[in-house]
Write a structure and sequence with these properties.
The complex is a heterodimer of chains A (315) and B (419). Chain A has 315 residues and is mainly α. In chain A, 73% of the residues lie in helices and 1% in strands. Chain A has a single domain, classed as MetI-like (MetI-like fold, Orthogonal Bundle), CATH 1.10.3720.10. The chains are: A mainly alpha (315), B alpha/beta (419). Chains A and B meet through α4 and α14 of A and α4, α5 and α16 of B.
Chain lengths: 315, 419
């Protein structure tokens, strides 16, 4: 203890004197690095290292009970097993990615339309800041519960003997229960939209709030109709928000296997589910190869989105 | 049995006295800290009552580590230092033993090694051989030596797993929603139940359910349903894909609770089920039958194993706990939930005669049958689905398994899910 106290006592005058001498320039140069260091360290330990390990393992060999260091492309070959031979019909991996992409596109569209509408209402139709904040907080309330609970709560609603079917049958709209409500594409899209719309609302709302209202007035004064103002003024200015929301939604849906699994009755394939099954059977290198390919696919998607908007400039 | 007059209470008293006298010659034990055993298994096998009773009787604390069915072998292979005792399914052994992370158990330290149920130790019930397709426990029960990584073909002194529980699975049905008689596994693929059937989403087990159905329907004959050839896997998956495209399946389930929910909500009216899951549906007041079928049951068994790293007092404690586990109280506790224990005779001593008659002899319940936690399971007059122990375990057709062509099978299963 005393030793430690002594050292600090020694260091302190040294540092102050250095600053006094004007040698603080080195410190000024170092400061931003030091400030960034904790985050960089967290990233290194919890992101870069595991990712590097995943990439390394994806080239290893495995048996039913062991994985061995090696450098083989066999796992990547196995992921695309039959993809060339089976043409023109699609192999498992392409079918799985196609199905995931389909959900991505549909959910992106639904969350964008709903998310933009909500954000627009909050930003332009709610007049006082206080009410805006209250409404915004209301939107986040569902996030106080677990994602799994929010998902599972759809099941009693949509099931064969669920509330929706009972209500429809009670009203005499249908005679037999609708089977397609649960464990179907519809159920997956509904749940994903429900879960991820807020990811669209938040960044779009943020973008809309930055729009100078005088721009809208100017548009109106210049004779633009409501639709024209929306198309030529508001949407272009909301582009960064739309883009950020899109990146959130696309990356989350690409990697999702819980929602697709539960709402699809485990009958709909997803890349995440394939990886999970392979891990269950201790095929870690194969799962790692799949993960690397998924990562590449998601990065390619994000890259394409970023090409559409220069986000640095717009922010 | 000669002990027909023995009451449960007197046996308990005797056991307590025995435990007491056993503790006295070694007073130095008390000077040491209590031993804690980290017990790795699925949540279904982890009864808090057993841990409590063991702590009371032995002074050994049990710390449960609850994971999924698939996670048990993964933990054994990747983190063998993270537990002291594992309760694993026998079918995982062909993966676990070659990894070198398991330690053969010394048969001479297991008091009731000669009393293990014959269905586990020999693959027979009352001297009659049961179906041995798949990974039958007696085929993987013995090791060549303590540190051996291969199985012995005949009994040796080194045991892989000492059985904890085992049972036979069959189709569970909702009799109120099905208006025909179900007698065969083929009903799983019956178009009458399109959109109302389910199978397991654990590939190695789900494919066996499918194989039972396909063989029953006469589509295919398998050499060994638990160890299919590539051609057999291809044919089975092709049939499954066809059924899936025709909308046969409502959903797939992967754990106990999911199977209960699917059945209780009426989403599914026919699916392969565990006996205690059927019981769980019924305790919700919903009719559900564990339907015996002409082709027989798909059986499973799980048991205690030791990690390679265990030694010293922990190892002694593990043997002590296992011997206690086989001594009856735990066996009776598990029996009253519908499982079968390793040693039947000792479990019987801890059960009331009417309970034994209901659970093991296929007799009508003379009194209400209660679960160990005091809930009503069956009213007086009921009989157990599937009948007696002999009728159930004697009709086993195959055992849960991991195939030699496992990697190929998983790839084909993913194809089925993606189809």
């Amino acid at each position: 203890m005393t030793q430690a106290a002594d050292t600090t006592a020694e260091v302190r005058p040294a540092r102050t004197s250095a600053r006094r001498r004007g040698a603080g320039r080195a410190g000024a140069v170092l400061a931003p690095y030091l400030q960034a260091a904790p985050m960089a360290l967290v990233f290194l330990v919890f992101f870069v290292l595991p990712l590097a390990a995943t990439i390394v393992v994806s080239f290893w060999q495995y048996t039913q009970y062991s994985i061995e260091p090696a450098f083989t492309a066999q796992n990547y070959g196995d992921v695309f097993y039959g993809c060339l031979a089976d043409l023109p019909s699609l192999c498992t991996t392409f079918l799985t990615y196609l199905s995931t992409l389909k959900f991505c596109l549909i959910v992106w569209l639904t969350t964008l339309v709903i998310g933009f509408t909500i954000a627009y209402f909050l930003a332009f139709h709610v007049r006082t800041l206080k009410v805006q904040v209250i409404c915004f907080l209301l939107c986040t309330i569902p996030f106080w519960t677990s994602i799994v609970i929010r998902m599972i709560s759809w099941i009693p609603l949509l099931g064969r003997n669920g509330l929706v079917n009972q209500a429809l049958m009670g009203m005499g709209v249908i005679d037999t229960p609708l089977e397609g409500l649960l464990y179907s594409d519809f159920a997956v899209i509904l749940a994903l939209t429900h879960l991820y719309t807020l990811f669209m609302v938040v960044p779009i709302f943020n973008s809309l709030m930055r729009i100078d209202l005088s721009l809208i007035e100017a548009a109106r004064d210049s004779g633009a109709s409501g639709a024209q103002t929306l198309r030529h003024v508001i949407v272009p200015l909301a582009r960064p928000g739309i883009l950020i929301g899109s990146i959130f939604v696309v990356t989350v849906v690409m990697g999702d296997f819980l929602t697709i699994g539960i709402m699809g009755g485990q009958q709909i394939a997803s890349v995440g589910k394939v990886i999970q099954t392979q891990m269950q059977f201790l095929q870690f290198p194969l799962a790692a190869a799949n993960a690397v390919i998924l990562l590449a696919a998601v990065l390619a998607g994000v890259w394409a989105l970023l090409k559409l908007v220069d986000i640095r400039k717009e922010l | 049995m000669t002990k027909t007059t023995t009451t449960r209470r007197s046996v308990l008293r005797g056991a307590a006295a025995l435990a007491g006298s056993a503790a006295f010659p070694a007073p130095f034990v008390h000077a040491q800290e209590r031993v804690t055993l980290r017990y790795l298994s699925t949540a279904v096998n982890q009864s808090p009552a057993i841990a409590e009773k063991a702590s009371e009787d032995l002074g050994i604390d049990i710390e449960y580590i609850a994971v999924n069915t698939d996670e048990v072998p993964r933990r054994v292979i990747t983190q063998p230092n993270s537990f002291d005792l594992v309760d694993s399914e026998y079918f995982s052994l062909p993966n676990l033993v070659p990894s070198g992370n398991m330690k053969g158990m010394d048969a001479s330290r297991i008091d009731r090694i000669d009393q293990l149920a014959t269905v586990i130790s020999e693959g027979t019930v009352n001297g009659e051989q049961v179906g041995l397709d798949g990974t039958a426990p007696h085929e993987v029960l013995y090791l060549e030596g303590q540190d051996s990584t291969s199985f012995a073909s005949s009994p040796t002194e080194w045991i892989t797993l000492i059985p904890t529980t085992y049972n036979a699975d069959t189709l569970g049905i909702r009799p109120d929603l099905i208006d025909k008689e179900i007698t065969s596994w083929a009903s799983l693929l019956d178009p009458d139940f399109a959109g109302k059937a389910s199978i397991l989403n654990i590939p190695s087990i789900g494919i066996m359910d499918a194989a039972m159905a396909l063989e029953a329907r006469g589509d295919l004959t398998y050499g060994d349903k638990g160890n299919m050839t590539r051609e057999e896997i291809d044919a089975t998956i092709a049939a499954l894909i066809e059924a899936k495209r025709a909308g046969q399946f409502r959903a797939f389930w992967s754990n106990f609770q999911e199977s209960v929910n699917l059945m209780a909500s009426g989403e599914v009216v026919i699916q392969s089920m565990w006996s205690p899951a059927v019981t769980a549906v019924r305790t919700q007041g919903i009719p559900c039958v564990y339907q015996p079928l002409q082709e027989g049951y798909r059986a499973w068994a799980s048991g205690f194993g030791l990690p390679r790293t265990i030694e010293g007092r922990k190892e002694d404690a593990a043997y002590e706990f296992i011997n206690w586990f086989l001594s009856g109280w735990a066996g009776a506790h598990l029996s009253k939930q519908g499982y079968y224990p390793a040693v039947l005779d000792t479990a019987k001593e801890f059960m009331e005669p009417y309970e034994w008659a209901y659970w093991y002899e296929g007799a009508e319940a003379e009194q209400d049958i209660m679960a160990p936690d005091g809930r009503l399971l069956e009213e007086a007059g009921a009989t157990r689905d599937g009948g007696s122990y002999e009728e159930r375990m004697g009709s086993v057709a195959c055992w849960n398994a991991v195939m030699d062509e496992n990697q190929y099978m998983v790839r084909k299963w993913n194809e089925f899910i993606a189809a």
